[in-house]
Amino acid sequence: MNKVRFTERQYIVIFIFVTSLFMLWGIAHSISDVLNKHFQNVLDVSKAESGLIQMSVFGAYFVMSIPAGLFMKRFGYKPGVLLGLILFAGGTFLFVPAANAGSFGFFRIALFILGCGMATLETVAHPFAAALGDQRSSDRRVNFAQSFNAVGAIIGPIIGTFFLLRATSSNHDGNLDPVKWLYVGLGIFILLVAVAFLLVKVPSLANPHEAPAGSESANTDTAPDKPLIKHRHFVWAAIAQFFNVAAQAGTWGYFINYGHDVMGYSDEKAGSYLAVFMVMMALGRFIGTYLMKFIAPNKLLAAFTMGSIIACILVAQKWGWVSYAALFSINFFFSIMFPTIFSLGLKNLGKRTQQASSFISMGVVGGAVMPYFMGMIADKDVATAYYLPIVCYFFIFLFAAKYYKVRY
């Protein structure tokens, strides 16, 4: 039996660049989790109100995923990436007038535009990474790229804690300059990345999703006459992604609050632990990618889902470092969920892979819902709020155990 290659030599350069995009939006997502606590301090918003930050970002995924998919289908991967980077940068620069106005609503508009950019990048980058090689190794390829998303998620809290929580640890005077200049710097960097990508030559891909059925790298459509909505594994992937991102956004959004309220740490110290929290995700993705060489992706997903359920129960008990360690472990178990759900949902959809990618990306809107409801509970007891994600893991487990299967 021939060994399936991770990718082909002619795709290495562009795969490295696509992988770097995963890291970029990982930085932005994790900084927004620091913003939750920062805006609670500086703008005097409640925990539930601070959850509207995630609603703005993830709500953009619901609005932008389909247009981004249509744009990608019409113009291709490279223009899709450039569009995402331009929107991304535009959102960061809107932080300047938002900070000058001192308006939480204006910040939410800026975050929505930024989220539109991230939604476009994610819609394009996942099928892009999956297309750069044999479909049989697409799970490993997407998980590897997502590993660098976790690296970005480590960098984000370090930057956010230093520029935001450190700046307000002893001064809650409403000064929003740290937020403004942090995002201006991020926007300039994103524009530089866009210019670099503009100069990168993308190898001819001759639409790999429509490759001949007998081709080794073909994403063969097993039922070309069946409507997309009738592909059960795709529908359940979109459902599972909704609940996965819902659980993730809520867990991340109140991590600093848990450290402050339950463990008694300062905001700055709790924020510094957020970087370690993200290390757990990076570790999980690298280990998970390796384990997929020996364990079927759906089985590993099911096992990690059960680990998350047990961890949530422990977190809610407030047993000191036992519960805090369990909170860290949740991010380890999160590690493979997003990319594995994504890649399993795109299996054997042929030329409709790009359209399916848009719909699965829309599932990210789950992240707009959970933080607000967790915040309502967290305003009374942040530990009790961690029971809520268990509902999400139930649906993910169903997908991993049964509904991932491609039916002919």
Summarize the structure.
This protein is mainly α.
Can you walk through the features of this model?
This protein is mainly alpha-helical and 408 residues long. The protein has one domain: Up-down Bundle (Growth Hormone, Chain: A). It is 74% helix and 0% strand. It contains 17 helices and no strands. It has helices at 12-42, 47-50, 52-75, 77-93, 95-101, 104-131, 138-168, 177-199, 232-253, 255-261, 267-291, 297-316, 321-334, 337-345, 353-362, 366-378, 389-403. The longest helix is centred in the first third of the chain and has 31 residues, at 12-42. It is globular. This is FHS family L-fucose permease-like MFS transporter. Pfam families: MFS_1 (PF07690). One of its GO terms (molecular function) is fucose:proton symporter activity.
Keywords:
globular; Growth Hormone, Chain: A; single chain; 17 helices; 408 residues; mainly alpha
